[in-house]
Design goal:
Strand content: under 5%
Shape: flat
Radius of gyration: 30 Å
Number of helices: 2
Number of strands: 0
Length: 86
Amino acid sequence: MATKNEVEKKGFMGFMAKVGKFFKSLPGRIARSFREMFGELKKVTWPSRSELINYSVVVLVFMVAMAVIIGLLDAASGQLISWIVK
């Protein structure tokens, strides 16, 4: 039967072995993640230049419209609060 000290030592050494194994396999896991990522990026259907420009214009118009709407709501709520406080 193992003594308590031997069990604690074995538990610690087992833990350190797991930590060592983790760090030893880390570069391989990182490299595998990048290989898988590049493989998936090859499957992507990229938009053409004209589609990209059209999508960008749509996003910019939407952002400007939302900025105007939020600005108006902010100004209206500020005016409402100033009327309430007076």
